[in-house]
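Lab meeting minutes (informal)
Scribe: AK
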Amino acid sequence: GAQLGRNGRTLRMRWEFRLKPWLLQHFSGTLNLDIRRMLANYLAEHFTDIDSVDWFAVARKPEFVGHTLVSLRTLFFSNLFSKTKKNKGDSSEVTLKDVAEYTNAIGLCKVSEKTLTRQKQIIDYFEQYVKKHGIESFDLYSK
């Protein structure tokens, strides 16, 4: 991080929450697939409450290929859960059913041109790096 003038924690978070999921999704053919509804419905159908969610099992489901446990939890808590709670407008507990109902009612997510451009730059750089250094196999799922 010091070489880039950035905090190491910030760089690690950028990798885990943004760059790694983009690469995983690109190589699995699911880049920019909006999984919000699928995730919300899966959680509501398979778990009794938020505390019972087995995120390891969720991350292994084929419908969430290209995502990690971290990216799925982040999508759920930072996006779906928080927006549902804000929409609900009261202090009562937000259930998985509430999250699914709210998520199903909202429209699909549109990816901005800026994000699409940045994704292409990151993916192109990664592919060129792999080719230049003769890397034949890599595992983006490992730490």
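Next up, CB showed the second protein from the same session:
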Amino acid sequence: VMPKQIKRAAGVFKQKRSADDSLIISRGNVQLGGQEIYVPPRLLQGIIPSVLSEAFHFWHGEDDIIRGVPINSGSNSSTWFNYVLEIVIEGDLNNNNNNNNNNNNEEENMEN
């Protein structure tokens, strides 16, 4: 017989999960004159190669640029990762999706 306390250890699938507490790590960047927020590697999985997420700490700036700073710096710096990365997302993702949907609708209308 399974103990009642662990019988539903996976949770109740029909119950809506409430928001959990979270921690935001921020820092002031003097060079930028603004704040940056730390981006954990798990949020970048599938977006950037894992070799980069293992070698850099990523920070999201107020200017919407994600900067990667080498984890090992100073005397322990790597010969492969001794630079700063900048990830810039250009354009409005919502408008691009709407434009693609509009183009598809126009093509469908032309076929009919």
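CB comment: The chain is about 25% helix and 25% strand.
No objections, moving on.
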